[in-house]
Each structure stands twice: as C-alpha cells, then as structure tokens.
Amino acid sequence: MGRIKKAKNVSGNSSKKPRQLNKWSEERMAQAIAEAKQFGDNAKLRTIARAWDVPKSTLQRRLKGHVVGAQHCSGRKPVFSEQEENELETVIKDMAGRGFPLTENNIRNLAHQYAAKNGIEGLSSKNGQAGWYWLKGFLRRHPTISVKSPEALSSYRASGMNRQVVGKWFEDYKSLLESKGIIDVPSHIWNLDESGLQDTFKPKHAVGEKGVPLYQIQHSEKGETRTVVPVFNAMGVFGPLLIVFKGKRVKSEWLTNVPENVMVKCSDDGWINKGFFLEFGKKFVSWLPKDDKRPHVLLMDGHGSHVFNLDFINLMKANNIEVFCFPPHTTHWLQPADKAVFKTFKTEWVKEGLKFNNDTAGRKPSKVEFLQLFKKAWGKAATVEVVQGGFRGTGMFPWNPNAIPGVAYCASATTERLYEMSAQTSTSGSDVVLQSAVQQAPAEQTAAEAQASAEQTVSEQTEVEPQAPAEQTPAEQTPAEQTPAEAQASAEQTEVEPQAPAEQTPAEQTPAEQTAAEAQASAEQTEVEPQVSAEQTPAEQTPAEQTPAEQTAAEAQASAEQTEVEPQAPAEQTPAEQTAAEAQASAEQTEVEPQVSAEQKTPAEQTPAEPQTSTERRVTFSNLSPPPVKERTTTRKRKQTSYHLTGHDHTQYLEKLANEKQGKKAKCRKSTAQSTAKSGKRLLNSFDLIMSISLSVRNILCARQYRLVVCCFT
C-alpha cells in the first residue's frame, strides 16, 4: 500500500511560516566566540550557545573558520562593499546637514551611476537606477539614516547661523553682562518677542479611512492674524502682555476675560507698530520693581519696530535697561521665546482651538471667545519650567555657547564665509576681516618666501659668476687641481646662463667641501622652468665614466653655451640629499613647478607626491553628488551690525537717520511745490496756446465765409 500524498494548497495561502533569519545579536555572537576560544578544546558549544542565546551551528561554523567574523552572513551579498556603503552614507548625511537632502530616487540614481563608473555589476540597468529593494536593504544596514519629511528653512536663516558670527555675538553678550554685573542674576535678563496667531485650527495628524480624503472643517481656509507680545526673564517671571487685533477700536466687552497685565490694541492689519511698541515699553518700565537699582538687559530680535524706534530706545536707556539684539536670522536657535515658549504655546493653542471647533461645528471665534481660548492655552504654556528650559537650551542663562549644537551650523556650510575677527585693526573688535584659508604642505615654500630668499641670494652675487665643472667629486678633483683652461671656460658663463652641478651626492661632496663658485652657480637658477637635457641622462653622466682628467676645454665651453631656457638641473638628488647651497638655490624657484618627465627619473628620485604609475582615480560618491555639496566663498566683507541698541553708536545712528528722513521730507515738499509751480506754468502756457489756435481757426473760417459770399455775388 503506497504512501498517501498530501493535497497541494491550491489557494496559494501556504500555512508554512516564512524563514526567520538573523534573529540573533551580533554582539552576543562576538561574546560567545570569545568565550569559546577562551576554553579551547574543552569548550561546550551547546552550553555556550544557550547561555548567549545564539544558534549552536552558527557558532560552530565561525569557530572552525568557515565563516569569518561575528556579523550576519545569510542572504545575498551586497553589491557594494562596506567601505563604499559607508562613503555613500557620509554623502547622504553631509547633503542633509547642508540643507539639500537627497530623495530616494536621488540615492538610487547615485548608486547606479557609481556602479556604472566603477564597473560594478549587480544592479538592474532597466530604469537607469538601483532597485527599490536595494534601497530598502541599504537603509536596513545603516540604521542611523531614515526617510523623513524635511522642514522648510529659508536661505537667509541657513546662512545666518554662521559659527564665527554667533561665537562673536556670544562674546559680546558675555562682556555686556559682566560690565553690568548681572551675569549671575537671572531676574535681570529679559526676552521680548512677538508672534502671530491664526483663528483656524488644523491638527498635524489624524486617523481616517484608507483611500478616502480626510477633511477638517473650519470657518475659512485662511484665518485672521492676531499678534501676541510677551516679555519674561530667566527666572520664569512674566511681565506685561500685548495683544493686537485687526480693527479700528477696542470694545469694552472684550476685556471681561482678559488675563492680568494684558494690553489690548487694534491696528489696520493686526500687526504691531512703533506706537504700540512704545506704549508697551512704558508699561513694562512702570511694572519693573523699583527696589533693585541694578541694570536690566532686554534681548530682542531685529524687527523694524524694535531697532529703528528711537523713542523706545531712549525710554529704555533712561530707565537703565540695556537693549541687546540677536544676530539676523538666528532667533530660531538663540531666542528663548521661539525655542520654548511659543513652541509650547502654539501646541496648546491648537488643542484648545480644536475643542472649540468641534463644539461649534467650525464657527469663527469672536474676539471675546478668542481671548477665552488664549487664556486657557497661555496658562498651560507660560510656566517657570518652560521659560527656564528655553534660556538654558539657548545658552542665554547660564551663559553657555556650547548649548547650540553643531548641527545648527551645518546648513551654513554651503554658503560658508570664512571670517576672522581682527583685534589688531580695531580695538573694539567690530571689524570683520576676510580670512583666506590656504593649506600648504610642510615641504613646500610659498611664493613670498621664495622671493625673499632669491633677493638675499642676488645681493650676495658678484659681477663675474664662474661655473663649477659639471661632474666633479671631492675625491677626484679639488679647486686647487683645476687647469687654467677649465677655469677660463668656467668663468665665461654669464649671469643669464648658469650651470648647475650635474651629479653631486652627499657621499661624493659634503657642504664643507663645496666651493664658493659652486654655491653661486647653484643660486643662479632662473625663473624659467629647468629641464633635464635628454642628451645627458644619469646613465651617461656618472663619475665612473667621466673624470675631470678626461674633460677637455672644448667640452667645458660647449657646456657653458646652454641658453637661458635650458639650464642644467641636478640629475640624481633627492630633497633629503640637498646641501645648504642647493636648498638656497631651490628657494629661488618660482610658483611655476619644474617639470621633469617620468623617463628621466629613476625610482629612487621619485618622491611620494610623484608616484611611479599614474593610475586613474576611482570615482567616489562625493564626485557624483549634486553641486550644492561644494562650498562657496565670497570676497566681500560681512557688514557688522551693532547689536547693542542702547549703545552710543546706535542711538547716534538713529538720530542721524531721523535727521536725514526729515531732510528728505523737506526736500520732497520743496520739490513738490516746485513741480506744482512748473505744472501751473505749463498749464497757463497750454491755455494760451489753445486760445491762439482757436483764434486762428476762427479767422480762417471767417475768411473762407467771406470768399464764398463774394463768389456768390460775382
């Protein structure tokens, strides 16, 4: 009787569970391998595997060497190596930090281009990009990156958070607090800011049916704007509060449920202006306690109603309140109100607004209802913990520039300007000088150093500059052994035609044995690129093949006839073997790098910067990344802003600005009167012209009529 076969599952829904691979931890596997190697042959693998919660067979394969390492090895091998994937991860993080994040399609295209440039196979070439499953596996292998929704950031805010600018501002802020003696007094450090509120409420996330649009009913798509202006100190104490509605006048019934110390105003657009801000400043000054005579510091942003409000600044200055302004486009990181208070308040505002929206079926809240909602939300957000956390997180109190994380400055890397605060050119430290970042290798000399060395060498030269013989060693011939013919031929070389020694090594000639004539000839290298002659190779010019006795006067004369374009360069001298005179001669070389062909250099002559074989550089992910990854520098100086608004310079500037404004108004009135007079004259002239034309037309018509009458009678 045969075995009964089981019927196949024709429905396609197999009851067999899928394979679960790589469920063990790599760290535990590494610990298990280390413990098994510690016991050696006496190790009980089953006990160790059970203790570390790893598979026994997997541990055994790694101990026998069938699999290297403690990492997961099941599944298909990745297309790129671990180093290449780490490089791609670095590029993704760098682009995201600069504010130009790569999308999923960008990463897939980048991977496909990299594989095509480097001849790597394994990726599909159907759509010209890597597959979706490759991207999924790449993200799984690199858990530090993930797909997320980017936040919008303006280019002004990105470039404004500059490390040098913010660092200089923190130093000025610390100097102000120390000069006023309140660096450790949180009750005298205040922050003032304004924010707009909308009367439309929409949650960030909600739950609904798949495939069906999800709506939030509200009275209109765009609500009406109201402005809220609070002021608070680092201890968590809140001062007066200003609320500005859009309207003409404030009604008395609005103020029934208004919180304590709240000013309610109306403007045409619902925004604050200089007049309201001055009134709010007067209320803040009258609210401050009078028993403590120490000065206060008020931190604000650079809004026009703050910075260019001379009456408000004079009011603060008269009441011993120093106004200090934040750098432009940095308040999202430096201002406690934006960082903590408003962030918490708007979250509570949306919650209270959604409750009101559900209760009233999307009706628009009135002014009274708006103030009721505001009172509830503000009471939950304006707490001591939130305010102190905001001052601590921005580094305002306690003073701490390191409270700003490094990621805050990453977005300015694309438009980074390298600046250096120069304390020598300005005692106040307000000048900003452009810093040119020049990186130079230790073995290289700058053009300035080379020029200085050349000038020192030229000043020591004489009119007649004899040239030493081409190939002489101390063992073969000394200066006293030179023949008269050789000395005469060597002396015929001019200043324009120097001859450098050909084959002098430290073993053949030491610095002490080098003559003055050889030092002068070595220092006379010209600005033109020296070229090694093809006819005089190192193989042909060796001490063994040519001695001083074999060199005739004719050969010396032919050697002296080399032109300015082709001076003889040393043949076999490495930088480590140069003598003191040769180092001085090499300093005279200009910025143009001497070119020597690869055939004229031996492997011993080639330095690490000049490899023997020029292999093509591998294309990297950084080469294939989009253009914004490159840093841009600018040659213009950054305009320094006076952050101390109550200082003498800023108040004097505002007074000058006000005088200029009044002068412009007077000039405008004068020009208007002149233009009116001119237009009146033109009008009179036009009237006269029209009258003259009408009289001429009348005379013509009368003449024609007279002629017609005469013709009829005749």
Can you describe what's shown?
Among the domains are: 39 residues, no CATH class; 60 residues, no CATH class; 262 residues, no CATH class. 41% of the residues lie in helices and 7% in strands. The relative contact order is 0.08. A hairpin with a 4-residue loop joins strand 3 and strand 4. Helix 9 packs parallel to helix 11 and helix 18 runs parallel beside helix 20. It is α/β, with parallel strands linked by helices and 714 residues long.
How many strands in all?
9
Overall, the morphology is: extended
Distance between the termini: 151 Å
Structural class: alpha/beta
> How is the main sheet built?
7 strands, mixed
Average pLDDT rating? 73
Percentage of β-strand residues: 5-15%
Rg, rounded, reads 43 Å
Helix content: 40-55%
**Model regions low in confidence, pLDDT < 50 over at least 5 residues:** 1-12, 417-454, 456-517, 519-554, 556-617, 628-640, 708-714
SSE map:
Blueprint: H1 26-39, H2 45-52, H3 56-64, H4 82-97, H5 104-118, H6 132-141, H7 155-160, H8 163-180, E1 189-192, E2 195-198, E3 225-233, E4 238-246, E5 262-267, H9 274-287, E6 296-300, H10 304-307, H11 310-318, E7 321-325, H12 331-334, H13 336-360, H14 367-381, H15 384-394, E8 419-421, E9 432-434, H16 447-459, H17 484-491, H18 516-523, H19 553-560, H20 580-586, H21 621-624, H22 648-713
Parallel strand pairs: 1-6, 4-5, 6-7
Antiparallel strand pairs: 1-3, 2-3, 3-4, 8-9
Helix pairs in contact: 1-2, 9-11, 13-14, 13-15, 17-19, 18-20
